[in-house]
Amino acid sequence: MNVLNFVSAFFSDSAHWHGYDGIPTRLWEHVQYSLEALALAAAIGLPVGLVTGHYGRGGNVLSLVATAARALPTFGLLVVATIVLGFGMLPVMIPLVILAVPPILVTTYEAVRSVDPSPVDAARGMGMRETDVLLRVELPVALPLIFGGLRSAAIQIVSTATIAAYVSLGGLGRYIVDGLYQHDYEKVVGGAALVAGLALVTLALFWAATKAAVSPGVRRSN
Amino acid sequence: MIRIDSVTKRYPDGTVAVDRLSLDIPDRSITVLVGPSGCGKTTTLRMINRMVEPSVGAILIDGVDSRQQSVNTLRRGMGYVIQNAGLFQHRTIVDNIATVPRMLGWSKDKARARARELMERVGLDASFAKRYPYQLSGGQQQRVGVARALAADPPVLLMDEPFSAVDPVVRKGLQDELLRIQAELGKTIVFVTHDIDEAVKLGTMVAVLRTGGRLAQFAPPAELLSDPADAFVEDFLGADRGIRRLSFFSSAGLDLLTAPVVAIDATAEQIAARGTTEAPYALVTGLDGRPLGWSEPDRLTAGQIDVGRLLPCGRPFVAGQDSLRAALDCAVLSPTGWAVAVDDEGRAAGVVSQASIAEAIRGAHAEGREEPRSTGAGVQKVIR
Ligand SMILES: Nc1ncnc2c1ncn2[C@@H]1O[C@H](COP(=O)(O)OP(=O)(O)OP(=O)(O)O)[C@@H](O)[C@H]1O
Ligand SMILES: [Mg+2]
User: Fold this and answer.
1) In chain B, which end has fewer C-beta atoms inside a 10 angstrom radius, N or C?
2) How far does A214 lie from chain B, in Å, by closest CA?
3) Looking at the complex, does the CB of residue A216 fall below 8 Å from at least one CB of chain B?
4) Residue A69 is part of which domain span?
5) CATH code of the domain containing A207
6) Cα–Cα distance, B291 to B278 (Å, whole number)
7) What is the DSSP string of B97-143?
C-alpha cells in the first residue's frame, strides 16, 4: 500500500466526515488556532516593524531578538508552557506566536526601511504628518514584502499548529497524534495531507490578498 | 520676501555646511543657488522649509521668523520639488498631484479637478491622469513633480536640482516651461542647481556659493558674467563667459544692410545695383520674402536664378528679438561670414557682417546695456 492509497482510503471513509472527530470540525479548529496565532503575531510584529523601519533604528536589536526567538525549540516551549500554565489554549499560542513574530517583524522592518527615500522626503517637504508619511507613503510601497512576511508566518503556523493535539486540544494534529498512537497510518497520512492542503489554500489566499491590496503602481520587484 | 539672516548650519558631525549666509530673496522672481558639489545649496534650501534647522541665525518670511508657525503649516505654503521627482508610486498621476489639496481638506473631486488643471499647465496630456509614475518618462515625472508642488497654489516654490536627471533637450523644454509658468503665476522660486548655464538662464538673481557654505556673489546673471566678484566666481563661470554674456545684449542695435537682398524675380538692373554694395554676396529671397541662399552677384542672371546652386544661408536670427549671441552664432556658422536677419514672420530683414557685429559688441560693452530682468517675462526672447 502506498501513501496515495492511504489518502484516498482516509477521505472516502464517511465516518471521517461527521462528528466531533470529523474532518470539518478538526479543520475548523485548526483554522481557528492558526488565525488566532497569526493575529496575535501580527499585532506584535507589524506595529513594531513599521515603527522601527520608519525611524530606521533598532535593526540590530530586532535581528538579535528574532534570531533568539528562532533558536527556541517550539515543542520544548509547548511542554514548558503547559507545565507552568496547565492545559489550555494559552500554552499552545505561546510557541506559535513566538514562531511567527520573527518573520513578520523582520520583513516589515526591512520592507519599510528599503522604501525609496525620495518620495518620503517629498512627503515631509509638502508638510505631511509623520504618521501619514508612514501609513500613506511608506506602507503602500512596502506592502508586497510585508505580505510576504505574513505569508511565511502563516504557513509555519498552519503546519506547526498540529502540536495542539499533544496537549489534548483539537485541530488536524489530532489525526496525526491519534493515528500514530493507534498505529492507524491511514489517519496519520490523511491528517498530514489535510495540513498540506490547508497550507496550499493559505498560499492562494495570500496571493489573492496581495493582488487585491497592493496598488498596480507598485511593481512586484520592490 | 524670504530673508536668510546670517544663518549658519553645523551638522552634528561638525561639518559646517552653511556659514553666516545672508540673502534677501525677492518676491515673484527666480533666485538660483549655484555652486560646486557640497557647497551647501541643498542645506540652504532645506532650511527655508525647515527640513533642516539652522544652528545659528534665522529665516524670516515676510519679516516673521519661520519658527513662529508650525512646521507643517509652513511647508504646506511652499511647494517642494526634488531631483528625481519623488512621486508616490502607488498613486496615479492625478492623485499624486492632488496630495496637498487633499491634505488641506479639499474634497476628492475638487482636488482632482485642480490636479487636471495643473497637468495642463505643466504641459502633460490629460491621458496620463490615470497612469502610475512608472509608466512615465523621467521628464514627464518631473513635470508631475512640479504640478504636485503647485497644486495648492503656494506663493513659494523650492526646487532642488529638479532638472538635473533628464537629458539636455528635455531639460531645455522643462526650463522654458518653468520660465513660462513663473511669468504666468508670479511665484517666488528658489532654485538649486550646480549648472551655471541653467542658473544664468533661469535666474533673476543668482547666488554663487563656495565650498564651506559661504556666499561668493549675489547678483543678476548679467552682472555675474560682466563683473565676477573674484577669481573663484570667474573660474566657476567658465571660459566662455564673454560669449555667454552676449545673451544679455539685444540685437536691436545692429546695422542691417538691406541692399544685398535680392528677390528671386529681380530684374537685371536690380541685380546689377546689388553688385555695387559693400557686401561681396547677395542674399536671394523667395517671393514670400524668406531667405533662400547666398550667391555672388555676378553669377546671378535675371529670370534664371537656380535655387539649387545657392550657398545655404543657415539658421537666421530674429532682428531685435534675439540676442547678439544668436547673431554672432549665425555669422560664425554662415559660409559667407554674414548673418541673415529676419523679422517675426521669417522674412529677410537684412544682412550683417561679423565685423559689424563685433562693432556692436564693443559698443554694448562700453555702454553696459544688458537688458535687465525683473520677472521671467520676455526672457526667452533675449536668450537664444
Ligand atoms: N545630514 C548631514 N550630516 C552631516 N553632513 C551633512 C549632512 N547633509 C549634508 N552634509 C554635508 O554638508 C555639506 C553641504 O551639503 P549639501 O547637501 O547642502 O551640498 P550641495 O551643495 O547640495 O551639494 P550637491 O551639489 O552635491 O547636491 C557637504 O559637505 C555635506 O557632506
Ligand atoms: Mg544638493
Assistant:
1) N
2) 8
3) yes
4) 3-213
5) 1.10.3720.10
6) 19
7) HTHHHHHTT--HHHHHHHHHHHHHHTT--GGGTT--GGGS-HHHHHH
Measured distance CA(B318)–CA(B381) in Å, rounded: 9
Check pLDDT > 50 for residue B384. Answer: no
**Residue A100 lies inside a defined structural domain of this protein:** yes
Which chain B residue lies closest to A124 (C-alpha atoms)?
Answer: B51
Is A119 a domain residue? Answer: yes
Instruction: Give the integer Cα–Cα distance in Å for B252 and B10.
Output: 50
Q: CB B90 to CB A215 under 8 A?
A: yes
Q: What distance lies between CA B208 and its chain's CA centroid?
A: 17
Tell me if B314 CB under 6 Å of ligand 1: no
ipTM of the shown complex: 0.89
Mean pLDDT value across chain B: 90
Mean pLDDT of B266-285: 80
Say which CATH topology domain B2-248 has: Rossmann fold (3.40.50)
Total domains present in chain A: 1
State the Cα–Cα distance between residues B48 and B51, nearest whole angstrom: 8
Strands B317-318 and B338-342: parallel
A112 interaction partners in chain B (CB closer than 8 Å): none
Domain B252-367 has CATH 3.40.50.720: no
Residue of chain A with shortest Cα separation from B81: A122
Give yes or no for A12 touching B (CB within 8 A): no
The verdict on A13 touching B (C-beta cutoff 8 Å) is: no
- Residue B210 beta carbon below 6 angstroms from any ligand 1 atom: no
Phi, psi of B212 (to 5 degrees): 100, 0
Give the nearest chain B residue to A143 (CA atoms): B90
What is the spatial distance between Cα B44 and Cα A106, in angstroms, rounded to a whole number?
Answer: 37
Residue at A219 is within a domain: no
pTM above 0.80, yes or no: yes
Contacts made by residues B256-264, CB under 8 angstroms, sequence distance 24+:
B256/B319, B256/B341, B256/B349, B256/B350, B256/B351, B256/B352, B257/B350, B257/B351, B257/B352, B258/B349, B258/B350, B260/B338, B260/B351, B261/B285, B261/B348, B261/B350, B261/B351, B262/B300, B263/B287, B263/B289, B264/B292, B264/B305, B264/B307
Give how far the C-alpha of residue B232 lies from the chain's centroid of Cα atoms, to the nearest Å. Answer: 23
Chain B contact present for A141, CB below 8 A: yes
Nearest to B2 by CA among B98, B66, B86, B46: B66
Residue at B238: amino acid letter: G
pLDDT digits (tens, 9 = 90+) for A135-170: 999 999 999 999 999 999 999 999 999 999 999 899
Centre of ligand 2 from the C-alpha of residue B228, in Å: 23
Ordered by start, the domain boundaries in chain B are 2-248, 252-367
CA distance A138 to chain B (A): 9
Preferred mutation among B42, B69, B89 to probe A, highest tally of A CBs within 10 A: B89
Instruction: Tell me the nearest-neighbour CA distance from B117 into chain A, angstroms.
Output: 20
Q: Answer whether B278 contacts ligand 1 (Cβ < 6 A).
A: no
d(CA B15, ligand 1 centre) in Å: 9
Interval between CA B38 and ligand 1 midpoint (Å): 5
Percent of chain B clearing pLDDT 90 (strictly above): 74
Question: Distance, CA B33 to ligand 1 centroid (Å)?
Answer: 14
